[in-house]
User: Which sequence fits this backbone?
RNA sequence: GGCGGCAUGGCCAAGUGGUAAGGCAGAGGAUUGCAAAUCCUUUACCCCCAGUUCGAAUCUGGGUGCCGCCUCCA
């Protein structure tokens, strides 16, 4: 059994076979850079990051694929122009700011950067020549400085979204209003090039100054970076129509070849049952969430516990559950590096996966089968938790000073497998990108638009207090005092001492036998 | 109105013909003066009705409810 993916084109799970053996070309629709990214974007890019990591995983049947991952920035768009006008900035300034914010956010979430990130502004030649081709083939027509794609001339239009133009026609009339109508021959025709109105920023073209339509930007960038036919095209389910439908129409009209062999779409993030979106105002930005103390890995876990095609309701409860779950996983993931010395898990002990004990082999196999089944990350995570349970217990015992047993020392391969599989899901303790994000956003997370403010999660609560400087000797003295108070059955004093230490970020753990150990943070 | 999707324990969520993964919460136990932390154990017949089948959460038909797209949108 090999990887199977749900192809929107056929609405079925299909065995995945790339055009070129062991190589995969992927295009992922990126963001329009007029604002910060919210959790909907986070989900989409987390999920596609996992697809990419999985394809690149050597544990894959047949070995790792070589993946070329391209994701665009839409940096020519009416919304960017509006935003720029509002703020008295140039379009480029708005997009540059949001592109840099995009990288900060995605780095923090441990999302691998694409191999290429083309921008519409840098692809205008390709866009214009594509429009020209369509025009010369009769697939497009110009009207008063605009150029439109002639939908009715394109056989198969609607094949991705399951739409039939003849049935749609009635509903469509009356839907589109405005001055474009007069120029369009069919209500579903869409703009490839929009002539500029006086005073608007514009780019030169054979049809006069103006700017490209959204759909053609992607068609041109796919072709520029990856050619006529790619293996996988990714995007949110809300892009199926009209964006991807139009992309197909344009690209296939020009090349006569299929644009993409597999179309994958992720489900939306909902809030209270409704789609999270800018227009509804119910969105939370990524940086607002991370700034409130939710760790990036918690968000990743939250996202990956659901199947990528289903809607995912964003709730505080769900997030808290993920935070607690991540606490356990991260403890297990960290055990090998934190306690490498005491466990004797040096690099030399790293066993190859071929030498895995049966139980671990079986887990690895089930993980692979889950991921092969249309990226069933929820089931894959189940295997991770299975793997992590004894390691988490071990980590907690070591944390309070227990000496590892011989059996504990033999858990090295288990830990390594956990680390390996978690990395396929992009789950790693101690994400480095977060600090940069938090440091870089001055006033930073105070996005006013946070409709659902997140209370600072307990995850990081102790971190600030932990640095307070009681010396070890001072702590030992207080612990001894408490021990004496307990011996004298003066529990009030004992509890007071415990509370004082806790206020300093010192946690006391009473172990069997009257021994108390203390831990910072 | 058209197209598509979803409905599993308190919450989230896997499972697509053979007696229900996992996470969170809860309960019980161990430990403790108590607590915290930790460890162990434990909790469902799957929206409704009809049908197919030796056998269905899983297939078919009908019903109900919810969501997405049809305008910019990950």
Assistant:
């Amino acid at each position: 059994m090999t990887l199977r993916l749900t192809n929107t084109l056929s609405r079925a799970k299909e065995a995945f076979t790339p055009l070129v053996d062991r190589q995969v070309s992927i295009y992922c629709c990126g963001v329009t850079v007029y604002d910060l990214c919210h959790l909907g974007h986070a989900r989409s890019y987390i999920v596609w990051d996992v697809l990419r990591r999985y394809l690149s995983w050597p544990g894959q049947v047949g070995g790792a694929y070589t993946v070329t991952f391209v994701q665009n920035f839409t940096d020519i768009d009416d919304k960017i122009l509006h935003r720029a006008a509002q703020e008295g900035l140039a379009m480029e300034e708005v997009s540059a700011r949001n592109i840099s914010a995009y990288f900060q956010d995605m780095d923090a979430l441990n999302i691998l950067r694409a191999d290429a990130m083309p921008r519409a502004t840098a692809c205008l030649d390709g866009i214009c020549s594509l429009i020209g081709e369509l025009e010369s083939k009769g697939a497009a027509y110009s009207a008063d400085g605009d150029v439109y794609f002639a939908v009715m001339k394109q056989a198969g239009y609607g094949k991705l979204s399951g739409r039939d133009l003849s049935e749609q026609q009635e509903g469509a009339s009356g839907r589109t209003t405005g001055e474009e109508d007069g120029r369009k021959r069919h209500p579903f025709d869409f703009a490839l090039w929009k002539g500029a109105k006086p005073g608007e920023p514009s780019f030169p073209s054979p049809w006069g100054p103006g700017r490209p339509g959204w759909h053609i930007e992607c068609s041109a960038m796919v072709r520029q970076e990856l050619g006529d036919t790619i293996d996988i095209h990714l995007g949110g389910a809300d892009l199926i129509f009209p964006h991807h439908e139009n992309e197909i129409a344009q690209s296939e009209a020009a090349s006569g070849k299929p644009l993409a062999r597999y179309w994958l779409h992720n489900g939306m993030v909902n809030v209270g049952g409704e789609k999270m979106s800018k227009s509804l105002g119910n969105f939370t930005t990524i940086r607002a969430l991370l700034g409130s103390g939710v760790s990036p890995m918690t968000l990743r876990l939250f996202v990956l516990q659901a199947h990528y095609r289903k809607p995912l309701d964003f709730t505080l409860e769900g997030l808290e559950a993920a935070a607690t779950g991540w606490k356990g996983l991260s403890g297990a993931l960290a055990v090998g590096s934190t306690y490498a010395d005491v466990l004797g898990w040096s690099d030399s002990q790293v066993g190859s996966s071929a030498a895995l004990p049966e139980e671990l082999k079986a887990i690895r196999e089930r993980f692979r089968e889950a991921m092969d089944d249309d990226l069933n990350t929820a089931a894959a995570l189940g295997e991770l938790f299975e793997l992590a349970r004894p390691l988490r217990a071990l980590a907690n015992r070591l944390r309070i000073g227990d000496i590892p047993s011989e059996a504990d020392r033999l858990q090295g391969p288990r830990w390594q497998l956990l680390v390996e599989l978690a990395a396929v899901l992009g789950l790693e303790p101690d994400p480095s990108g977060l600090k940069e994000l938090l440091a870089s956003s001055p006033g930073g997370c105070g996005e006013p638009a946070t409709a659902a403010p997140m209370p600072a999660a307990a995850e990081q609560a102790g971190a600030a207090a932990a640095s307070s400087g009681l010396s070890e000797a001072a702590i030992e003295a207080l612990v001894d005092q408490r021990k004496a108070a307990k011996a004298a059955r003066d529990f009030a004093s004992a509890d007071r001492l415990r509370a004082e230490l806790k206020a300093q970020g010192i946690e006391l753990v009473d172990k069997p036998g009257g021994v108390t150990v203390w831990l910072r943070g």
